[in-house]
Structure formats: structure tokens, C-alpha cells
């Protein structure tokens, strides 16, 4: 998985910006992660990254830990994939870099995220990508389409409250895909 190349910009309440983690920042975060149960040992190495925020609140970044959260889906992605939630496009980009993925359909609720992030990927991947402005919890997939893999990533935070929505989405796509998963589902089940 590679860092994203989405340009910086603003659309409505959403913003894409680059940020730098210094070596001192990395050292402090490593120390903090040793004493924090909620960090689960996560630490951002020094480097330049991209983040997506809404009202200044971090929603997604292309840090190594965040990218690792999606590796299971990227591994299973093949054929026509469906991604619920565009975010920064980390998952989308990784899928479309795989030769086994022929097409990606993304369901994204926010027109601002589509304007800010989606247009970049539409230009980059052309007709291999379809972005639909809809709520993943309400959108009904076409009857004649089967997906090689489906990924649900529509939550800004991980919490147990997401589990009921995950179950709804997994039921909706259970017979329409060979494999599906939800971002952070196991973490939510453990109650972090």
C-alpha cells in the first residue's frame, strides 16, 4: 500500500492537508503508546503524511497503522469490488493498483468528499472507477451485480455502536460477494 497523492484542498467542512511527524514526535508517541491501552501499540513513524478532516477532526490518514487496518480487504480484493466510504481513498487506490481488481464502485455519502477526493481518483483511474453519491446504509446494490469483495468503512470512530450498522451491511451483501469485511469490526467487538 502506498501513500495517497490526493492534492490538498477544502470542500465544505472537509479538508485534505499534509502533515509532518518529526523524529521527536515519533519518540514521544512511542513512549505514550507503551502506557496507553487504547493505542493498541500504534505509533506513527517520522515522515510526511496526508489526512482528511471534517470540522478539524481527523477522519482518515495514510499513516502505516491506518493503512494496515485495511490490508485484509486489499488482500481479498479481486474482480469488481465495492467500497462503502471513500475517505482519503487509501483503500480505493490500493485496490485499483492490483491487476486482479477490474473495477471499483465506491458509495460515498458526502458530495464534498467526492469533490475533494473522488475527482482525483476519477481522473487517475477513469472507467475502472464508479463513485456513487449515496448513503451506504440506504443504497441497494443492483440485482445483477456480484462483487469479488466488499469493504465497509463509513465510521469516523471505532466503537461498539458501529456493530449494528456493520451487521446490517454484512446481511445486505452476504449473498452478493465472495468476501466482505468492515473497518475495525474486531476492535469494536472487543469493546475498545
Write a concise keyword list for the protein shown above.
alpha/beta, Rossmann fold, 5-stranded parallel sheet, 7 helices
State the total count of DSSP E strands: 9
Mind summarizing the main beta sheet?
5 strands, parallel
The amount of helix comes to 25-40%
Please report the first level of CATH classification, the CATH class of the largest domain.
Alpha Beta
Strand content: 25-35%
Cα shape: globular
* Spans of at least 5 consecutive residues with low confidence: none
Can you tell me about this structure?
It is a single chain. The chain has 192 residues and is an alpha/beta fold. The protein folds into two domains: 9-63, no CATH class; 67-190, Rossmann fold. It has seven helices and nine strands, in the order ββαββααβαβαββαβα. It has helices at residues 23-35, 64-68, 71-76, 90-96, 111-125, 163-173, 185-190; strands at 9-11, 14-21, 47-54, 57-61, 79-84, 101-108, 129-133, 149-152, 180-182. A hairpin with a 2-residue loop joins strand 1 (9-11) and strand 2 (14-21). The longest helix has 15 residues, at 111-125. The protein is globular and about 55 Å long. The two termini are 26 Å apart. The model has no long low-confidence stretch (mean pLDDT 87).
Amino acid at each position: 500500500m502506498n501513500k495517497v497523492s490526493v492534492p490538498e484542498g477544502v470542500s465544505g467542512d472537509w479538508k485534505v492537508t499534509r502533515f509532518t511527524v518529526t523524529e521527536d514526535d515519533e519518540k514521544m508517541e512511542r513512549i505514550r503508546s507503551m502506557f496507553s491501552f487504547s493505542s493498541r501499540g500504534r505509533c506513527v513513524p517520522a515522515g510526511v503524511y496526508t489526512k482528511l478532516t471534517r470540522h478539524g477532526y481527523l477522519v482518515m490518514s495514510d499513516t502505516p497503522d491506518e493503512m494496515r487496518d485495511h490490508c485484509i480487504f486489499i488482500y481479498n480484493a479481486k474482480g469488481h469490488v465495492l467500497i462503502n466510504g471513500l475517505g482519503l481513498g487509501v483503500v480505493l487506490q490500493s485496490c485499483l493498483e492490483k491487476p486482479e481488481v477490474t473495477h471499483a464502485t465506491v458509495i460515498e455519502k458526502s458530495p464534498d468528499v467526492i469533490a475533494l477526493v473522488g475527482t482525483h481518483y476519477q481522473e487517475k483511474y477513469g472507467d475502472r472507477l464508479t463513485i456513487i453519491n449515496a448513503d451506504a446504509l440506504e443504497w441497494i446494490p443492483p440485482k445483477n451485480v456480484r462483487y469479488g469483495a466488499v469493504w465497509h468503512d463509513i465510521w469516523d470512530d471505532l466503537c461498539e455502536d458501529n456493530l449494528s450498522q456493520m451487521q446490517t451491511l454484512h446481511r445486505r451483501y452476504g449473498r452478493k460477494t465472495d468476501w466482505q469485511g468492515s473497518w475495525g469490526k474486531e476492535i469494536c467487538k472487543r469493546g475498545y
